[in-house]
User: What shape does this take?
Amino acid sequence: MCPERGETFWLILPSVSKRFSQALHELAAFLGLGPSEPFILVLDRAGWHTSAKVAVPEGIHLVFQPAYSPELQPAERLWSVTDEVLANQHFETIDDLVDALEERCRTLREQQAAISSRTLYYRLGCWKQDRI
Assistant: This one.
């Protein structure tokens, strides 16, 4: 996500540790990254982010925040608004839950001003303007 413009990129995956490399490759393809198009991705130090098994595609450079510093990660402010449609709800199946979450992500993607207002507490240079 880009706090400055409120742009988001969402992927819903069935697990995290083995799927993080897939997410990086999807992001690289989505943004058209490669050796001549570098991109810095700032991450926390979750085990699946720092694993030696992570395959980082060309063009993406991972920069890790200090340990135990969620206040430095603007994306942390999005979990409450992402989860609010799921809280206190009963879903008959996992597919129903995923459908609700996908719809929420689509809705949030259109709410760039709201995303920016929650996450832009310091300025970042991110995402080329013509990317999304």
Observations:
- Helices lie at 20-31, 47-50, 79-83, 94-109, 112-119.
- Strands lie at 39-43, 60-64.
- The chain has one domain: 20-119.
- The longest helix spans residues 94-109.
